[in-house]
Amino acid sequence: MWDTSGRKIKRFLVGLNWKKKKSRQKYKKAIERYILVLKKESVWWKTKRTKDTKQRALARLKKYWITMNQVKEALDRKWLNDLSSKIVA
To answer: What is the mean pLDDT of the chain?
Structure first.
């Protein structure tokens, strides 16, 4: 029988899943980004740019419900204990 709906592609070809794979690294990357901002702040002091990026990184941590204890643990794992004094509570 003919396809009477006017489609040129058969239905079994259209039903494929074309969605991309979701990242499971969001939490890890958010923590790494905040640590990177802390490193830059320790080298360049507080500039307007580091201040703005730190606010964005904090907003991302808040969005993903990441606590400062988790950030401190990540700093301990990376042997960056001197940066833990710069963490905002």
So the answer is: 79
